[in-house]
Amino acid sequence: MRIPFDELKQHFKRVLTALNFNPNKAEACADIFAANSRDGVYSHGLNRFPTFVEYIKKGFVKPDAEPSLLNTFGAVEQWNGNFGPGMLNARFCMSRAMQLAEINGIGCVAIKNTNHWMRGGTYGLQAAEAGYIGICFTNTIANLPPWGGTQPRLGNNPLVIAVPHNDEPVLLDMAMSQYAMGKLQLYKAQNKPLPQPGGYDNEGNLTTDASAILESQRALPIGFWKGSGLSLVLDMLATLLSGGQSTAAITNAGKAESGVSQVFIAIKTDADRNRSLINEILTYTKSDNSGQEISYPGENMMRTRDQSLKEGVWVDEEIWEKVKGM
Length: 326
Fold this sequence. Notes:
Blueprint: E1 2-3, H1 5-18, H2 23-38, H3 49-57, E2 68-73, E3 76-80, H4 86-104, E4 106-115, H5 121-129, E5 132-138, E6 159-163, E7 170-174, H6 181-190, E8 199-200, E9 206-207, H7 210-216, H8 225-242, H9 247-253, E10 258-268, H10 271-286, H11 299-311, E11 313-314, H12 317-324
Parallel strand pairs: 3-4
Antiparallel strand pairs: 1-11, 2-3, 4-10, 5-6, 5-10, 6-7, 8-9
Helix pairs in contact: 1-2, 4-5, 6-7
């Protein structure tokens, strides 16, 4: 079913206000959750909201917490998220990175003791829509076996790169697993096969069955060994730059996915000057004569957004009824 964007947002705000979020924070969090579903990232919009509420009730997410500055090294800063809402900490960090970039040309803000940021692309878009190149990444709980292994020892550690481009930024937002965990959960709930194999079953066979992959805990890394290696170094960078917890420490703490480490980078750029270069790259990429439609990262998101605003945001009816009853 589809519902109006504002209605979705108001129910999120109502629930968060009842959980002792102040009005401004409730509004900001509600807007991010609703915008994620609006843009088609349902796994980190409505579908993720009940888990966020659960984490608040368990004390993993502290509604009143604010980030605090730990260290500054010119264009690089370290912050403590103090276990506040991950989306608000992330939005603050990218804003601060842009402020540093305005002075230095580049700004890097690393944060420890924060929580799940939901859709990482939110903060890439935040930078790109303000005219900056945005790069950000996070570590996670262990949910991805290293290449050659069978047990989760790496996080799927999402990486985001956003480039300003007219009103439709180029937005790469990807996990290091072939399918993000939220996407696997979505396919499982819909009882649909994955378009391509996304991991292994308990017998070690590649499969398109999301349920089997979640049960075996053997998701497939992107690019096989290359994705495994990239996941490892992203965890290292997030941990070292923030001074926070690694995937190993987060997992061994046994407190679900809380206390993660994240990095936000903003690079000052001249979007007007670069417009022709970006258009050249995109036009050449799309000139493939296979007859198939070629889209750049983030292009289909804008189409989904337009449809959601015109026709309503797609929601899973069961989860929607659950949220309305909170």
